[in-house]
Specification:
heterodimer, A: 347 residues, mainly alpha, two-stranded antiparallel sheet, 13 helices, globular, B: 315 residues, ABC transporter involved in vitamin B12 uptake, BtuC, 14 helices, 0% strand
Chain lengths: 347, 315
């Protein structure tokens, strides 16, 4: 088997293969439903209905997509520069901690929301700064360090919630005190359960897109990602670019945690994120690392999660079908993307 | 301070260190084989999960313990084959594929577990490997309980490490595998297939990772529960770096690491444990792994072609 590069891939190939990857994922979904003893088509229908079938369901999907847009952007920004930030989970919790730290009375309106958002971004950026400095200074692989820091951060959150940040009125549950009203993100429309975090996530996607496509930093990030040695040879400060990328990426991931606390939950608990940081990797890859695509793919991923939860209650197929499908979609998608640029020659 | 000495002189501490090291030794050897052949396998965490699950499930369904270990290995090899196919002939990003395999293997385990046992509140138990009771040897003071009252799977881990070392450094096959990770063009020039060598290494390595996972359910604990692997796979990747890609050093690293882990568990029971939150102790293994990476960063001898996909005829 050999791979021959295709000089100018036709549009049909560029659209057809990723579409085929999604179709293949749906086929896997149907096979899994069959294994679980459910009707394949009905299962797909129940997932779609659970995600979009009612106003409540659709709002739930949008709420679930909010942290995923932030972590998806965080991963997309980093991966574009080939900075392997697998630590979005830790950075998310850093942002959540700051939301509680500043949102429980330390600051009042109107300062508390903007200040705590910026402080959260700073905290997330700092969490990623350590691994990146280790990488640029000592050549320590950032994949493993960022992964390991996720576990450290979760334990730190657990310590905070059982110690200094414990809610004295929490009946012994490890959770933080509730945020004051002024520190909460208001709902976009009165009466609808959707908070301003979603709008902020959309704005963040546009800002990242502008940074990537219209600024020198964006150009440098792409150049460093495409060929680090060539970028260095061209006189680019590669390490500085990597640090800037890390600050942006960590800051974005932190906003996920910040908006979950300030917008949705109103307090911090150690189950705040069911792996939003890791799922951000899938979101970013399905979006082909494009910031605006991240919004769409976050909606898709959120719909699979929300829809599967609801389908599982109705049809009895385990809810982990969602995680299986998304991992499958990720692998199919990277394969499809490679095949848009290379032709497989069997001989 | 006397507490520390009491711990370090106790039989149970050293026995625990070797027990804790066993799954790490299996998985570290697995990762080492992959990386020596030039493939970073980030599927390790999920492959350990599927190994823990498949081994446990087989025994729960009535298979003998060793058949359970075999089932774990087969499941690991299957996911290894998926990883190898995508990263070697197709040359896809080893980072993305590895994380994808980890997610898929983990989700598959959880899905299958829930499918088989929809409504369990406390995880069912199986009868795990019993500690060996060797005549004479087990009765030696200190050494007996530390070394000869471990389970057969612990011994298998040590033997496996020896075998990996022997095959990699003393046989033509090992030379070819290492060359595939250092200078694949030279391997191809010898008429050997880089693709075959790398795929074989990833499949075999993944099998060992899964056996490491099955140690958790079939020797250390007796049931399968979610998040039981808990970052051990990532720690093993750090151990490979710490061991400078050498099996002997990696085993020493795993033992050292396990000793610290056994120590932190015991320190929690001492007056020191009353002063510090228990989370500080639980953080130690992860922080220690990061420290190991930092210490070795200057002198690690990374396989030259690690993470470089090989395409025939390309330079």
């Amino acid at each position: 088997m050999r791979l021959d590069p295709i000089a100018a891939p036709p549009l049909s190939r560029q659209i057809g293969l990723p579409a085929l990857a999604l179709v293949a994922t749906l086929l896997v979904a149907m096979a899994l439903a069959l294994i679980a003893g459910a009707d394949p088509l009905a299962t797909l229908g129940l997932i779609a209905k659970g995600a979009f079938g009612s106003k409540f369901a659709a709002l739930e999907t949008l709420n679930r997509a909010t942290p995923l847009i932030f972590t998806g952007l965080a991963v997309a920004v980093a991966f574009r520069a080939k900075l392997w930030n697998i630590g979005a989970e830790a950075q998310l919790y850093a942002g959540a901690i700051v939301a509680v730290l500043l949102g429980t009375g330390a600051l009042g309106a109107p300062l508390v929301l903007p200040v705590s958002a910026l402080a959260a971004m700073l905290a997330g950026a700092l969490v990623l700064l350590g691994p990146v400095v280790l990488k640029t200074r000592l050549g320590v692989d950032e994949v493993v360090t960022t992964l390991l820091l996720n576990f450290v951060m979760l334990l730190f959150v657990s310590y905070l919630l059982e110690g200094p940040m414990k809610d004295p009125m929490g009946m012994g549950w490890p959770k933080s005190p509730a945020l004051i009203k002024e520190a909460r993100l208001p709902r976009i429309v009165d009466g609808l359960r959707l908070h301003w975090g979603f709008a902020l996530a959309l704005i963040a996607a546009v800002v990242v897109w502008v940074i990537q496509s219209r600024t020198t930093l964006g150009f440098e990030m792409r150049a460093v990602g495409q060929n680090r040695e060539a970028a260095r040879f061209a006189g680019m400060p590669v390490n500085v670019v990597l640090v800037k990328t890390a600050l942006l990426s960590g800051g974005l991931a932190a906003l996920a945690g910040w908006s979950e606390v300030a917008g949705l939950k109103g307090h911090l608990s150690s189950d705040l994120s069911p792996g939003f940081g890791y799922t951000g990797i899938i979101v970013a890859m399905l979006a082909l690392l494009h910031p605006l695509g991240v919004v769409l793919s976050a909606l898709f991923v959120a719909a699979i999660f929300v829809g599967s939860d609801s389908m599982s209650r109705a049809a009895g197929v385990p809810t982990y079908i969602a995680d299986m499908l998304l991992a499958t979609a990720l692998l199919f998608m990277v394969l499809a993307l490679m095949l848009t640029r290379y032709r497989v020659v069997w001989k | 301070m006397s507490d520390l000495f009491d711990i370090l002189l106790s039989v149970s501490f050293w026995a625990a260190a070797i027990r804790i090291a066993s799954p790490l030794i299996f998985a570290t050897m697995g990762e080492l084989i992959c990386e020596r052949a030039g493939v970073l396998n980030l599927g390790i965490e999920g492959i350990m999960v599927i190994g823990a699950f498949a081994g446990w499930m087989a025994v729960y369904l009535g298979a003998p313990l060793w058949l359970g270990v075999t089932a774990a290995m087969a499941a690991g090899m299957l996911f290894g084959l998926l990883h190898a196919t995508l990263t070697v002939p197709f040359g896809l990003s080893q980072h993305v594929v590895g994380l994808g395999v980890t997610m898929l293997a983990t989700a598959t385990s959880y899905f299958a577990y829930r499918l088989a046992l929809p409504e369990v509140t406390s995880p069912p138990k199986v009868t795990p490997f019993a500690p060996m009771d060797l005549p004479v040897l087990s009765d030696i003071p200190f050494l007996g309980p530390v070394l000869f009252q471990q389970t057969a799977l612990t011994w298998a881990a040590l033997i496996c490490a020896g075998l990996v070392g022997f095959v990699l450094f003393r046989t033509p096959l090992g030379l070819a595998v290492r060359a595939a990770g250092e200078n694949p063009a030279a391997v191809e020039a010898q008429g050997l297939s880089v693709t075959g060598l790398r795929m074989g290494a990833v499949v075999v390595g993944s099998g060992l990772m899964a056996v490491g996972g099955s140690f958790l359910t079939l020797s250390a604990f007796s049931s399968f529960f979610f998040e039981m692997v808990n970052g051990r796979g990532w720690i093993c990747i750090a151990l490979v770096v710490f061991g400078a890609w050498r099996p002997g050093k990696a085993v020493l690293g795993a033992l050292l690491f396990a000793a610290f882990d056994a120590l932190q568990i015991r320190l929690q029971q001492t007056p020191l444990g009353a002063h510090l939150p228990y989370q500080v102790f639980l953080m130690a293994p992860y922080l220690l792994s990061i420290l190991a990476l930092i210490l070795m960063s200057r002198r690690a001898e990374v396989p030259a072609a690690l993470m470089v996909p090989y395409r025939k005829g390309e330079r």
